Amino acid sequence: MSARIIDGKAFAAGLRQRIAAEVTRLKQAAGFTPGLAVVLVGEDPASQVYVRSKGKATLEVGMASFEHKLDVGTTQEALLALVDKLNRDPAVHGILVQLPLPKHIDEARVLATIVPEKDVDGFHVVNAGKLATGAKDAIVPCTPLGSLMLLKDTLGDLAGKSAVVVGRSNIVGKPMAQLLLKESCTVTVAHSRTRDLPAVVRQADIVVAAVGRAEMVKGDWIKPGATVIDVGINRVTGPDGKARLVGDVDYESALPVAGAITPVPGGVGPMTIACLLANTLIAACRAKGLAEPTL
């Protein structure tokens, strides 16, 4: 028996289609276009690819895309001034500052400067606090939100299930745990210092691997029939000398054990940009006092 492959690419495509339909409706009914501003400082190759992909996806769903590409030597003061300008721009409903930033810039200071209402990455402490306290208007980080969508599409009601999140980052691990708690799961957050990590993971109906270590979670760690969401994206060199992408889960050994699993690539990855667009759409509706769409 082999696990069901959770097709994040197909789900994300459907989500983008629904977002595009809502954007068209807003243009016709309310006369405005949701806008997303992306700020890139420097010339990090991976960041450039991400920003290009985000800009293309934004335009494809009919939103306005505002790209700001700054020199690597841009001062922190200049970047903060740009963020402040975007905060006050009524055409911009979402602001994303691409990380990592150059070392001379304080990332926490920059993220804190984005107004929470336009923080479509969901990294601001206000949005983190709202998520932790169960507030309905929290903007949720895109990768955990996409992972939750895939889980609910695969399993339906998650209430009562045992979930283990491997990884405790502010970007994925902690918000993922909060989302699962909100769905009435029994949640364990595991990490590098967890004692007998395989035994902890083996108890879970749901495993979310977000630890950033290539193929760390082995197939014999997985409870038979469990659903596995692999958030990891790691570039490794195979025996043939060619680079390839793998997740935090040893996919080949987990495939015969799990009930359902996301592949890498093609699983959680495509959901991140789709959820960024969803967050921007929701932020735009809130800014205009309109009902939030059900996506």
Q: What does it look like?
A:
By secondary structure, this protein is α/β, with parallel strands linked by helices. 40% of the residues lie in helices and 16% in strands. It has helices at 8-29, 45-60, 76-88, 107-113, 125-133, 142-155, 173-182, 197-201, 251-254, 269-287, and strands spanning 4-5, 35-41, 64-70, 94-97, 162-166, 186-190, 206-209, 227-230, 234-237, 243-246, 260-261. It has a six-stranded parallel beta sheet with strand order 1-11-8-7-5-6. A three-stranded parallel beta sheet has the order 3-2-4, with helices on both faces. Helix 1 (8-29) runs parallel beside helix 10, helix 6 (142-155) crosses helix 7 (173-182) and helix 6 (142-155) crosses helix 10. The radius of gyration is 19 Å and the shape is globular. The two termini are 33 Å apart. The mean pLDDT is 96.
What is the structure about, briefly put?
With 295 residues, this protein is α/β, with parallel strands linked by helices.
Spatial ordering of strands, largest sheet: 1-11-8-7-5-6
Structural class: alpha/beta
Largest sheet: 6 strands, parallel
Shape category = globular
Low-pLDDT runs of 5+ residues are none
Helix content: 40-55%
> Strand share of the residues?
15-25%
* SSE sequence, one letter per element: EHEHEHEHHHEHEHEEEEHEH
Task: Give a quick set of tags describing it.
6-stranded parallel β-sheet, 295 residues, 3-stranded parallel β-sheet, 10 helices, 40% helix
